[in-house]
């Protein structure tokens, strides 16, 4: 969980078969966050505490 490090989050839900995009800005001032491996799935769940407003969705890392 990165909730205590999250500075901003933008989810772009593209139409059709175009890939969605997730942009995260994280506070890594202490250098302890490891980058995900290429192709890793990052799961995002949005909603109110205790009741998700949107279903979880997996987004593949496009990191080079």
UniProtKB/TrEMBL annotation:
SUPFAM superfamilies for this protein: Phage tail proteins
Protein name: Late control protein D protein
Organism field: Escherichia coli
Organism lineage string: Bacteria, Pseudomonadati, Pseudomonadota, Gammaproteobacteria, Enterobacterales
């Amino acid at each position: 969980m990165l909730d205590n490090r999250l500075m901003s989050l933008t989810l772009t839900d593209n139409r059709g078969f175009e890939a969605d995009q997730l942009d995260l800005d994280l506070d890594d001032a202490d250098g302890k966050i490891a980058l995900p491996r290429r192709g890793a799935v990052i799961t995002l769940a949005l909603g109110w505490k205790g009741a998700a407003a949107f279903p979880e969705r997996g987004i593949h890392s496009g990191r080079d």
